[in-house]
Amino acid sequence: MSSQPAYIWINGRVVATSEARLSPFDHGFTVGDGVFESLPARALKPFALQRHWQRLTVSCDALGIQVPDIELMRTAMVEVMQANGLSDARLRFTVSSGDGPPGTPQGDGPPTILAVATPLIPWPATEKILVVPWTRNETGALAGLKCTSYAENVRALRMARSAGAGEAILGNTKGELCEGTGSNIFVVIDGIILTPPLESGCLAGVTRALAIEACQAAGIPVEERAVPLSVLDEVDEAFLTSSTRDVHPISEINGRLLNKAPGELTQKAAAAFAEYVTSVVD
Questions:
Q1: How many CB atoms lie within 10 A of CB 106?
Q2: What are the structural domains of the chain?
Q3: Of 8, 11, 67, nearest to 35 (Cα)?
Q4: What is the pLDDT of residue 1?
Q5: Is the four-CA dihedral 19, 22, 24, 29 of positive or negative sign?
Q6: Are 46 and 39 in contact (CB under 8 A)?
Q7: Which of 14, 27, 261, 281 lies in the 20 to 30 Å Cα band around 113?
Q8: What distance in Å separates the CA atoms of residue 36 and residue 52, rounded to the nearest whole number?
Q9: pLDDT tens readout for residues 2-36
């Protein structure tokens, strides 16, 4: 199968990828003025669509981009999956501010809306992570927003993969643990599952929130708490979350093998998550 899908959905219709066109003045391309959501779908049903749309709304509002209707989002995703013959897929829904002048100010035209569906590719059973030397600015204008301005993440992930890891982890300007390039991180300390609070500058991950809710419902100790980045030098159990990873055990940190992956609390969290999402996710 080609690395690119045969069809995409753009601005209201499905078109052949080879014929799709994006304006050279689109601000999503020229200055990264756009937002997006990535999520899986199974049996043509996008995962936690309501929650992803709500986060998309927050990101659009922050950047002054017109918010697409949730039913448009759903329709675009289903149509592009069907066009590519996929009932299970990894979906990406992107909204830019549309055409704008060559400089920074936004234009006054409609947004550009794009939906892409590609096959779901399973992650390895466990993941290796590498802490990279760059930081998240927890007070920056884009903190906590899921924007198309992803060059920092691209560079960080390239460093991690060159070292044999599958995800890069960043701290914030306070030296606290923050997040991965496309994931949230949880660590186990003294029998409690901890994850950085949103004030750390991390993304408000949909799966992060669901994992916290699932643990709370199952009576598994979990807290949002700021911890120093250096805890990764000592913890013996940790995991990542994202909409395609679900609860993903970490087996190696900066080349240091963890004693057991998945650990006991990670296994409990994964089981609780799997059960929880069947009852609460739209």
A1: 17
A2: 7-118 (3.30.470.10), 127-280 (3.20.10.10)
A3: 67
A4: 39
A5: negative
A6: yes
A7: 281
A8: 9
A9: 479 999 999 999 999 999 999 999 999 999 999 99
